[in-house]
Amino acid sequence: MNTSDVKDVVKQKYGEAASRVAQGATSSCCGGAPGSGSCDPITSNLYDPAQAGQVPEKALLASLGCGNPTALAELQPGETVLDLGSGGGIDVLLSARRVGPTGRAFGLDMTDEMLALAEENKRKSGLANVHFLKGEIENIPLPDNSVDVVISNCVINLSGDKDRVLREAFRVLKPGGRFAVSDVVVRGEMPAAIQKTAELWAGCVAGALSDSDYLAKLAAAGFDNADIEVTRVYNIEDAREFLAGQGADVQELARQADGKFVSGFVRAVKPPVDRAASAVPATAAKAASAGSCCAPSCCGGGV
Ligand SMILES: C[S@@+](CC[C@H](N)C(=O)[O-])C[C@H]1O[C@@H](n2cnc3c(N)ncnc32)[C@H](O)[C@@H]1O
Fold first, then answer.
1. Residue 208's pLDDT is what?
2. Which residue owns the Cα nearest ligand 1 atom 23?
3. Closest residue CA from atom 10 of ligand 1
4. Which residue segment(s) compose the domain that 181 sits in?
5. Among residues 82, 151, 236, 297, which one has the fewest Cβ atoms lying within 10 Å of its Cβ?
6. Is position 303 within any domain?
7. For 185-238, how does the pLDDT look when each residue is reduced to its tens digit (9 = 90+)?
8. Does residue 145 have a pLDDT over 70?
9. CA 92 / ligand 1 centre spacing (Å)
10. Which CATH number covers residue 235?
11. Ligand 1 pocket, CB under 6 A
12. How many domains is the chain built from?
């Protein structure tokens, strides 16, 4: 599948999930009664009752993450937060409360039905410092150096171009800004049979990076201090239940998946002095001696 096909599958899956929630059902595909929560081992029981009580019911019902980045990201009053793939908006609303009225929380998503649900949840929450944006995490519609913290919850694994997503996260972060993301990560190699299945991709598993690839890609994007903290391990019975709904060869896939899939809290920091900025003087000096313009604005000098 090319990246455009992946996006179409993802939009369809999450559009359907949002529509289920809009009609009062759970976003989970496993048939739980409205309000019963999800039986998916990845997305269930991520928020404690105090956090759940801070958001509209439909934000909780729409929760399709695999961790709780706002609980781990140490958000401070006044900060600007961006949630990549914000879905029904639960982490954006929780972030908005943490950063307070002097801060801002942006949610970015490409699926219209999810954005509509998120807007409804924003309206019910009464929060004024929340902004939902339509767009792709591979092309973040925000300026360079404008965000203190990038969060995300089980979305980067869905992208067909993760290097680009990480470069975009780096670009929009201010120097010293934090990447604080929950994601499904694979320990070791991904079984090829899982990678081939678009349905599984949309189900959070098949696009997951290995832990070593994730750290290498973060470093390649320019981040420092990259680290993955395992927050949940999926055993063979978890995988069996999850895979059963996907029409896959459960016996074989569950055997191959045993102990390999985990949820991780992935952290990294953009260096306090922007490497691109520090690289400009040398480039500019060279260009000046050659008599040409080399300001970042005319050399395409982003990060
Ligand atoms: C697994 S859900 C997670 C939603 C939310 N983060 C949560 O914890 O409930 C994935 C969300 O990411 C969005 N998404 C997936 N790939 C995307 C992309 N490339 N650009 C923008 N949004 C994307 C989907 O539309 C969907 O709303």
1. 86
2. 85
3. 155
4. 3-298
5. 297
6. no
7. 988 776 676 666 555 666 666 688 889 999 999 999 999 999 999 998 887 666
8. yes
9. 12
10. 3.40.50.150
11. 7, 10, 14, 63-65, 85-88, 90-91, 109-111, 114, 136-138, 153-155, 158-159, 204
12. 1
Nearest Cα residue to atom 8 of ligand 1: 65
Q: Tell whether 204 is covered by a domain.
A: yes
- Hey, how many other C-beta atoms are within 10 angstroms of the C-beta on 205? 29
Residue 91 covered by a domain: yes
SS3 for the chain is: CCHHHHHHHHHHHHHHHHHHHHCCCCCCCCCCCCCCCCCCCCCCCCCCHHHHCCCCHHHHHCCCCCCCHHHHCCCCCCCEEEEECCCCCHHHHHHHHHHCCCCEEEEEECCHHHHHHHHHHHHHHCCCCEEEEECCCCCCCCCCCCEEEEEEECCHHHCCCHHHHHHHHHHHEEEEEEEEEEEEEECCCCCHHHHCCHHHHHCCCCCCEEHHHHHHHHHHHCCEEEEEEEEEECCHHHHHHHHHCCCCCHHHHHHHHCCCEEEEEEEEECCCCCHHHHHHHHHHHHHHHHCCCCCHHHHCCCC
* Ligand 1 center from residue 109 Cα (angstroms): 6
**What distance in angstroms lies between residue 191's CA and the mean position of ligand 1's atoms?**
23
| Cα distance between residue 299 and residue 293, in whole Å | 8
| Pocket-testing residue among 109, 134, 166, ligand 1, by greatest number of atoms within 8 A of Cβ | 109
